[in-house]
Amino acid sequence: MTLPNSFKQVSINVSGKPVLPADQVPDLVDEQGYFLSKEILRKKKSLCTEQIYQELQAQYNKAVNSGIKINHLDTHHLAATFPAFKETYIRFANALGLPSRRIDTVTAGQTGLKVQTPQAFDMRFYDDGVDLKKLQELLFEYKKKIGGGSFKLL
Predict the structure, then answer these.
(1) What is the pLDDT of residues 52-106, one digit of tens each?
(2) What is the distance, to the nearest Å, from the Cα of residue 42 to the centroid of all Cα atoms in its chain?
(3) What is the sign of the dihedral through the CA atoms of 109, 111, 114 and 120?
(4) Domain span at residue 44?
(5) Domain co-membership, 74 together with 145
(6) CATH assignment at residue 109
(7) In DSSP terms, which residues pair with 75 in a beta bridge?
């Protein structure tokens, strides 16, 4: 079994500082201009969706303008599961037309994704689960389950 020699994803990030100036995304940042904590963002039921969309676009543009040829989208720390981000992320992914990771195994509600998505998402290859033996086991498990389909390991 061979793996592609490169995976080029944009992992939308909501930690640290945004790409856009803080005054353009005030709903998303604290007084110092850093993204609100994941805990706060996860609990917020509503944020300005246009600010979210513009920041997603700015992060994507920064990657593309740096010469990266992107072949799929993702979110860092499962940001697409945050209630206020989910629908905006789906709209953004659909507008770009790039394949995207689904996170339905973590939280329901990404059925609106119209782009190509993996058939499976597995979080067992993370933290203490990262070693060559575990990777081989998971690759063979998914080869049996989905054949030539695609899956995402975390």
Answers:
(1) 999 999 999 998 999 888 887 877 666 777 777 888 888 998 999 988 876 666 6
(2) 15
(3) positive
(4) 9-113
(5) no
(6) 3.20.20.370
(7) 12
The pLDDT value recorded for residue 114 is 87
Looking at per-residue pLDDT, the higher value among 154 and 44 belongs to 44
| Claim to verify: residue 129 and residue 63 sit in the same structural domain | no
Residues 80, 18 within the same domain:
yes
Does residue 19 have a pLDDT over 80?
A: yes
Give the pLDDT confidence score for residue 54 in this predicted structure. 97
d(CA 116, CA 95): 13
Three-state DSSP at 39 gives helix
Does one domain contain both 100 and 151?
no
CA separation for the pair 84, 46 (Å, rounded): 5
Computed over every residue of the chain, the mean pLDDT equals: 82
Query: Quick one: tokens of 140?
Result: 């063979």
